[in-house]
Automatic annotation (TrEMBL):
Record domain Ketopantoate reductase C-terminal: where: 278-402
E.C. number: 1.1.1.169
Keyword Acyltransferase: no
Family: Belongs to the ketopantoate reductase family.
Gene3D superfamilies named among the record's database cross-references: Ankyrin repeat-containing domain, N-(1-d-carboxylethyl)-l-norvaline Dehydrogenase, domain 2, NAD(P)-binding Rossmann-like Domain
Superkingdom to which the source organism belongs: Eukaryota
Name of the protein in its database record: 2-dehydropantoate 2-reductase
Source organism of the structure: Hondaea fermentalgiana
ANK repeat residues: 20-52
Length: 410
């Protein structure tokens, strides 16, 4: 029985953060229930104990209810460390590997997450729980689920596998329809659709596609390096879970741990932006990714190489093809800001992130499968569907596939 059912059975009416405005009162038996009080305090409740024929507890859970987040992927490790620094936030980090393990099995040290920041500083934060799968969910701390938000940041090639894992999590009650949100911050297109398909048996689960300009690389187990800073955009703006996510990310900057280690977050120029037009933002990022990622991977060079004058004809043609494809997509537009053309925008992004190593270049250098299928592959398939010629985008796509085939055959 969940904590909420436990309280309701005893006459509780909880004023929760999800919009309910019922009176927050609970009548307990004459002898008192200290376990209930402890549970409420654990969940951030303000408890008003009054004398009388029976104990009366006034519970203001709506103000301080704890949020429960689950993170998957290397960038998820960064978000886990950041959110764990916020009050009333319990973060579960999901690691690669089979089986299930929790902090109680592995010891307190196993819950420590480290992030190296771009300025050379390092931040270590302790998360609430570390998992390796869902099969033994009965052994997990029941105070830490069901999850309000599950953040998916794995490579696009792993999306189908994660969708299967999330379906298992829902089957075990870790995700709850009409309560839980699954948010994809992955590169490329189609990831949210794959997750929705995997969770088709749980129609009340909300699955959204967001985007982030942050990047992180794995250094070691539960240890990542943040490669630059930038915005994270999520929506719809009125979703209460997404609003809480944005608020907790901002709040983490203003709360230091007892040893002051969390003060380092103040130097990270990162914000979570709520928007009702995330789809247009995702397409705009796709424009930059479809040019910068394959070109840097081909040339084995940093992002700034895309801004070279000699590459301008290639950039211009690739962007023109992108715009021809996008004309057939409904409800989205390119958000180019002050830039006169799509090509100008891509060159600006390449210069702004000039010293960065693109994720596709990092994959090629490491001999890993890239995300080209979810980026240029997606665009090539869309072009074929719409009857649009896109030889430049398709050429970039085929070259990266050739690179992958080359090192896969070694």
């Amino acid at each position: 029985m969940t904590m909420v059912h436990f309280l309701i059975k005893r006459g509780a009416k909880l004023d929760m953060q999800d919009g309910s405005n019922t009176t927050a009162l609970m009548h307990a038996a004459r002898e008192g229930h200290i376990d209930i009080v402890q549970t409420l305090i654990h969940y951030g409740a303000k408890v008003d104990v009054r004398e009388g024929s029976m104990l009366l507890f006034h519970v203001a859970v709506n103000v301080q209810r704890r949020s429960l987040f689950m993170m998957l992927g290397s960038l998820g490790t960064y978000f886990a460390a950041r959110l764990a620094a916020s009050e009333n936030t319990a973060v579960t980090l999901v690691r690669r590997g089979g089986g299930a393990s929790t902090s109680t099995h592995a010891g307190p040290a196993r819950r420590v997450v480290r992030v190296d920041l771009p300025d050379g500083e390092a931040v270590e934060t302790e998360v609430a729980q570390v998992l390796r799968g869902w099969e033994r969910s009965a052994e997990l701390d029941r105070d830490l689920w069901p999850f309000d938000l599950t953040l998916v940041t794995v490579k696009s090639k792993d999306t189908e596998k994660v969708g299967t894992q999330l379906a298992q999590a829902a089957a075990h009650g870790l995700l709850v329809p009409d309560k839980s949100v699954i948010l994809s911050l992955q590169n490329g297109m189609g990831n949210a659709d794959v997750l929705r398909s995997a969770l088709d048996g749980y129609p009340g689960l909300r699955v959204y596609q967001g985007l982030t300009y942050l990047g992180a690389s794995v250094v070691d187990d539960q240890y990542v390096r943040l490669n630059g800073s930038g915005r994270t955009c999520v929506g719809p703006a009125e979703d209460p879970v997404l609003r809480t996510f944005a608020e907790r990310m901002e709040r983490s900057c203003n709360r230091a741990s007892p040893d002051q280690s969390q003060g380092s977050w103040e130097r990270v120029e990162e914000a979570v932006v709520l928007s009702d037009d995330v789809a247009s933002m995702v397409w705009t990022k796709l424009l930059a990714n479809a040019v910068i990622n394959p070109v840097t991977a081909m040339l084995r060079d940093k992002n700034e190489c895309v801004a070279r004058q000699g590459l301008r004809p290639l950039v211009t043609e690739a962007c023109a093809e992108f715009e021809r494809i996008m004309k057939h997509e409904k409800g989205v537009k390119l958000l180019l800001g002050e830039h006169a053309s799509a090509a100008d925008f891509v060159v600006h992004v390449a210069r702004q992130t000039g010293r960065n190593t693109s994720s596709m270049l990092a994959d090629v250098q490491s001999g890993r499968q890239t995300e080209i299928e979810a980026i240029n592959g997606f665009l090539v398939r869309r072009a074929h569907q719409h009857g649009v010629l896109a030889p430049t985008l398709e050429g970039l796509y085929r070259i990266i596939l050739g690179l992958e085939a080359g090192y896969a055959a070694r």
